[in-house]
Amino acid sequence: MTDLYFFILTAINLFVLIFMCGLVKLSETLNPKQAKGFLATFILIGGISILEMISVLVDDGPVWLRWLNVMSNYLGFGLTPVVPICLAYTLERSERMSWGLKIAAAAEILYLLVLTVSLFSSGLVFTVDAANHYSRQKGFYIYMIMYYAGIMYLLVKTLEMARNFQNRGKELIYSLTGFLAVGTLVQVLIPSVHITWLCVTLIAVLYFLYCNEMWNQLDGLTGLLSQKSYLNRTLNLRPEDRMLIVLDLDDFKYINDTYGHLAGDRCLREIAGCLKKAYSRYGNCYRIGGDEFCVLLREPEKEELCKEKFFWVMEKRRKVVSILPFVSYGSAELLEQESIRDTKARADQKMYEDKKEHKERKGR
Fold first, then answer.
1. How far apart are CA 37 and CA 26, in angstroms?
2. What tens digit of pLDDT does each residue of 285-342 get?
3. Considering the domain 227-363 in this protein, what is its CATH number?
């Protein structure tokens, strides 16, 4: 009865994974690297789920099936730590593998070598005896260390990604990681339950949903929250949205016309990076137009501190990117009796006054 229950769960699991593979293939919002990473993750989870099902079917069965029991357990234990590594790869922004990912891959290769060598000895992580009976061995902790190390690495990479999302949804990340760790621990303590891969599938699906939602909120060029995100947020302002800051680049058309649009794009990315460094701890940063940015600040009393940091970081970056334009700045506190449009108009007015001062100073 327990085995039947397990096979039904595995069948449901595989259906979900096949459906998710189809969804990834149909997606036009994922870039090729993200699509490849999620596909690899779902296929890998499906493969390991099948291997676990095979090991349950053949365990304590005919002796001539012992080799199948050995290989299914070997591949299952060997490939399990690759799952969080695949997800971590999906979350990386660069096409190149980071040093962290290279170290994780090297650790996985070393672990596979150790597992392979142990097949020809008494067995380190597991054994399948001459009677075709599987049992854990004293080295089972090595597998657990590798698996939990992979989960911790995935947590670090996800929190790194969350910083790019201006630390939004961090609590969701902790809950996902905790759920995966607890689900695995239950499997370790009660081997007959067989819920690990159902938990892993659920986590992978939730990761897909979380990442898709976050990526869809970002401006593709700058990595700031997009104009659409800004418009949606301002339709339903929250109590913590207490100040609107608007920023506009001076003479940006001149930079595009003189140095080209690629140089202009680099300037936009540089300024977006400066904004996040200065403001993301206290508010949400948006790109709301070609060369127009804004911040919804939670703590107006931090405005001067953030402003000083922003222009200080800008000056530092200007030493590297000499064509980085100057930025005009305006702000206004949100009032209860006032619409966001009126608040923005007040902030824009201050920004235009700042821009006028820049032009007058430049003309002297």
1. 15
2. 999 998 999 999 999 999 999 999 999 999 999 999 999 999 999 999 999 888 999 9
3. 3.30.70.270
Residue 37: count other Cβ atoms within 10 Å of its Cβ.
21
The rounded distance, in Å, linking the Cα atoms of 348 and 294 is: 10
Beta bridge partners of 245: 295, 331
Pinpoint the alpha helices (H) of 165-223: 170-189, 196-216
At 215-252, the pLDDT tens digits run 888 888 898 999 999 999 998 888 889 999 999 999 89
Task: Read off the tokens for 231.
Answer: 């418009």
- Please, where in the chain does CATH 3.30.70.270 lie? 227-363
Question: Which residues are within 8 A (CB) of 34 and not within 5 positions of it... i.e. 6 or more apart?
Answer: 90, 211, 215
User: How many Cβ atoms from other residues are within 10 Å of residue 335's Cβ?
Assistant: 11
Q: pTM higher than 0.85, yes or no?
A: no
Q: How far apart are CA 320 and CA 316, in angstroms?
A: 7
Reduced to 3 states (helix: H, G, I; strand: E, B; else coil), residue 297 is strand
* 243 closest CA partner among 209, 272, 213, 284: 284
> Which part of the chain is CATH 1.20.1070?
2-216
Residues in contact with 284: Cβ distance below 8 Å, sequence separation at least 6, in sequence order: 166, 168, 225, 233, 295, 296
CATH of the structural domain 2-216, one choice from 1.20.1070, 1.10.3470, 1.10.3430, 3.30.70: 1.20.1070
Burial 109-148 (b: 16+ CB within 10 A, else e): eebbeebeebbeeebbbbbbeeebebeeeebeebbeebbb
Contact 195, 314 (CB under 8 A): no
CA distances from 193 to 2, 3, 118, 250, 336 (A): 8, 10, 27, 63, 55
Structure token pair of residue 277: 């460094």
